[in-house]
TrEMBL record:
Catalyzes the cyclization of GTP to (8S)-3',8-cyclo-7,8-dihydroguanosine 5'-triphosphate. This is GTP 3',8-cyclase. It comes from Ruminiclostridium hungatei (Clostridium hungatei). It catalyses: GTP + AH2 + S-adenosyl-L-methionine = (8S)-3',8-cyclo-7,8-dihydroguanosine 5'-triphosphate + 5'-deoxyadenosine + L-methionine + A + H(+). Keywords: 4Fe-4S, GTP-binding, Iron, Iron-sulfur, Lyase, Metal-binding, Molybdenum cofactor biosynthesis, Nucleotide-binding, S-adenosyl-L-methionine. S-adenosyl-L-methionine binds at residues 29, 70, 121, 192.
Length: 328
């Protein structure tokens, strides 16, 4: 078996699958004012096509799967997809990133299907501010969904929070308290530049170091190891069940340890979240699939993986439509 190793010696064992580019929210840092041109349903990969690719990828060392979107729970067949991936023996871990609005409705079905872990995007604990950030969301739906997931005993639940100055930086200690009260790990993420976030971006950006300083002033943070696939650096709050993490794609790149590749909902393999290059595998999956051809395309995508991302605020920004389709 030929293992997926890129030209910089990084072993690729983690696949993120965006199952849709549709979303039931319109977050201020994600959806542009002009809207997003969504892929038509016929252009999206079917369950059969996704599973066919996962089997090929798993035969070459992919062991961890993260299902993303858009909002993955908008796909009616999402639980069936989870179940099919779970049946692939060499896949050791399957998780999902969701905005949490529909978790209460689908949590039980997803748990039965074999989903092990949940990452829930939540940028405010204030209902009015949450509505302002998401446009269509109701905070209570996410919080009741988290409660339901905890009741069902998912092996791990994490909350992802993008911190933006003058919007939710003042809530950072509220999120730390939320972690100490629930035992759920909260991960603070640096605000990333996209074509929808350029106005005043520099004034809105908060580095992971500043976030950590604010948290450490109120709590004595202790470094901790937390199971998972992500690049977060974790800390525990002594005397509590609280755990917080910091993800710093701008201030402190973690590219040297990157072990992932991404599959978009319309069949593109993307080797880096911030690249403008991809390998189209949809046609190969739809005509058979031809396993040898799909394998060749997979290795071609790995070969194109850059040493590090080129996310530079001054002259290059992540394309928002790609961000929606790649799944962050």
């Amino acid at each position: 078996m030929k293992i997926l190793i890129d030209k910089y010696g990084r072993k690729i064992d983690y696949l993120r699958i965006s199952v849709t580019d549709r979303c039931n929210l319109s977050c201020i840092y994600c959806i542009p004012k002009c809207g997003v041109l969504q892929a038509i349903e016929e252009e999206m990969l079917s369950i059969k096509e996704i599973v066919s690719f996962v089997k090929v990828a798993a035969s070459h060392g992919i062991r961890k799967i993260k299902i993303t979107g858009g909002e993955p729970l908008l796909r009616k067949d999402i639980a069936a997809l989870v179940s099919c991936i779970t049946e692939i023996d060499s896949i050791m871990d399957i998780s999902m990133t969701t905005n949490g609005v529909l978790i209460k409705k689908f949590a039980s079905e997803l748990k039965r299907a074999g989903l092990k872990r949940l990452n829930i995007s939540l940028d405010s604990l204030c209902s009015d501010k949450y509505k302002e950030i998401t446009k269509y969301g109701e905070l209570k739906d996410v919080l009741t969904g988290i409660e339901r997931a905890m009741e069902l005993g998912f092996s791990q639940i994490k909350v992802n929070t993008v911190i933006i100055r003058d919007i939710n930086l003042d809530e950072i200690l509220d999120f730390v308290h939320f972690s100490t009260e629930t035992g759920i790990a909260v991960r603070f993420i640096e605000y990333m530049p996209t074509k929808n976030s350029l106005d005043g971006y520099a004034k809105k950006f908060v580095s992971a170091d500043e976030m950590r300083f604010l948290c450490n002033e109120a709590y004595s943070l202790l470094p901790a190891a937390v199971d998972g696939n992500g690049p977060a650096k974790y800390y525990v709050i002594p005397g509590t069940n609280g755990t917080i993490g910091f993800i710093s794609p701008l201030s402190c790149k973690f590219c040297s340890d990157c072990n992932r590749i991404r599959l978009t909902s319309d069949g593109r393999l993307v080797s880096c979240l911030y690249t403008q290059e991809w390998v189209d595998i949809k046609n190969s999956l739809r005509k058979g699939p031809d396993i040898d051809e799909v394998t060749e395309l997979l290795f071609s995508a790995i070969a194109s993986k850059p040493a590090s991302h080129s996310l530079i605020v001054e002259d290059r920004q992540m394309d928002f439509c790609s961000m929606m389709r790649i799944g962050g």
